[in-house]
């Protein structure tokens, strides 16, 4: 079917802000400029200049920063207070979600900075996330405590977030020109991806210290939370550490470190995995200080993540195949866990040989699958945009194709 001819536009576009500080000083004028200049219908792959691209994906980083701040606060909040739909952490997370929705609408309508695959991932991801919200609310109306990160409704939130981030990673990866900005934004997007993947483990990382405080008679939870849990027939251990002890290390290895393997191979910088893990742990440390200062419960920090990340970077640098690298990384990871655990700074880990061998075998299979995918025709096709989209180098908006990018 032939492509529709470009539609002419006679809208008067005001001049662009001269600099980011000028844009921030005059937000209404900036929004008016953005609306008139860029909210015109177009198809995915619409030519997008590099400066435009940086602005768009910086907005994605800002949106996920809001979501990460809200979700980090949310975990600590729910180890202190009963659930509240309008709790401040929920509102902060919702603000980030609103920015993501606005960005997906922008991409869908204008066609800027995405190809069809990236756009579909963004759309499917935000759709899954928005569907999960009412399901999660109903779940807590029925089941009460909002204390477990491992519920099915929360899993749908994580899956939706991962899918929309995959779309953002693809859009930036395809169209951003080589250089420092490309590398930094890629690292930022992968940071949020890894944070989302390892997020469920924070339940145990908060729970282990909260349970220790409870057993020592200095609980960090408010009496109403403990009373509510008791009324539901739950002991403190049941809602502070509700999953088996093999879950925390296995999930960090087979999900968190696997995500770092993929990030290292796609971003391509020598210390990609180590940098992402170090920044993540640095962020967790800053949040730890802030939350404790506000009298919220603390958590342990999974320092083993950066040890595993360093091992990944070294393995990829020396071109070790996954079937060799994965067992080595597993051994280093569990050794680091034994050290940190001996100091009392980790949740309980199942360190039996059976648990270790099963986790290591699963990680080896997954890393080998990543290696096979990296050499496949599928990835070669994935590396190419379905539409060119990145040719324009000027900030001047391109006339739109009629109709906009569809949601189907």
Automatic annotation (TrEMBL):
The signal peptide here is: none
Bilayer-spanning residue ranges: 53-70, 90-106, 118-135, 155-175, 184-201, 246-263, 275-294, 300-318, 325-346, 352-374
Q: Where is this region: Disordered?
A: 1-21
Question: Origin, by domain of life?
Answer: Bacteria
The protein's UniProt keywords, in alphabetical order, are: Membrane, Transmembrane, Transmembrane helix
Q: What is this protein called?
A: Uncharacterized protein
Origin species, per record, is Geodermatophilus ruber
């Amino acid at each position: 079917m032939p492509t529709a001819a470009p539609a002419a536009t006679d809208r008067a576009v005001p001049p662009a802000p001269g600099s980011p500080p000028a844009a921030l000083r005059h937000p209404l004028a900036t929004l008016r400029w953005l609306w008139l200049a860029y909210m015109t219908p177009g198809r995915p792959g619409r030519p997008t200049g590099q400066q435009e691209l940086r602005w768009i994906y910086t907005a994605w980083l800002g949106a996920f920063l809001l979501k990460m701040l809200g979700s980090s606060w949310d975990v600590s909040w729910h180890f202190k207070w009963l659930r509240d739909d309008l709790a401040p952490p929920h509102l902060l997370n919702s603000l980030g979600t609103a920015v993501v929705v606005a960005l997906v609408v922008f991409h869908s309508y204008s066609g800027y900075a995405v190809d069809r695959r990236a756009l579909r991932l963004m759309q499917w991801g935000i759709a899954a996330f928005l569907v999960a919200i009412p399901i999660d609310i109903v779940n807590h109306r029925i089941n009460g405590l909002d204390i477990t990160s491992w519920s099915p409704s929360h899993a749908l939130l994580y899956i939706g977030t991962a899918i929309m981030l995959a779309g953002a990673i693809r859009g930036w990866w395809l169209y951003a020109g080589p250089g420092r900005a490309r590398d930094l934004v890629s690292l930022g997007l992968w940071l949020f991806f890894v944070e989302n993947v390892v997020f469920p483990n924070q339940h145990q990382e908060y729970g282990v210290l909260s349970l220790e405080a409870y057993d020592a008679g200095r609980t960090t939870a408010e009496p109403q939370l403990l009373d509510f849990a008791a009324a539901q027939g739950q002991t403190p251990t049941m809602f502070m550490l509700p999953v088996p002890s093999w879950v925390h290390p296995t999930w960090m290895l087979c999900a968190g470190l696997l995500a770092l393997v993929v990030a290292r191979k796609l971003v391509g910088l020598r210390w990609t995995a180590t940098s992402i893990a170090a920044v993540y742990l640095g962020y967790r440390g800053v949040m730890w200080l802030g939350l404790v200062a506000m009298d919220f419960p603390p958590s342990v920090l999974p320092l083993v993540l950066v040890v595993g990340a360093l091992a990944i970077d070294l393995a990829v640098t020396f071109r070790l195949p996954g079937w060799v690298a994965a067992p080595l990384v597993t051994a280093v990871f569990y050794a680091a866990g034994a050290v940190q655990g001996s100091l009392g700074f980790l949740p309980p880990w199942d360190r039996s040989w059976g648990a270790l061998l099963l986790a290591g075998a699963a990680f080896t299979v997954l890393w080998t699958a990543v290696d096979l995918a990296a050499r496949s025709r599928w990835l070669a096709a994935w590396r190419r945009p379905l539409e060119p989209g990145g040719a324009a180098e000027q900030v001047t908006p391109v006339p739109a194709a009629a109709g906009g990018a569809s949601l189907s």
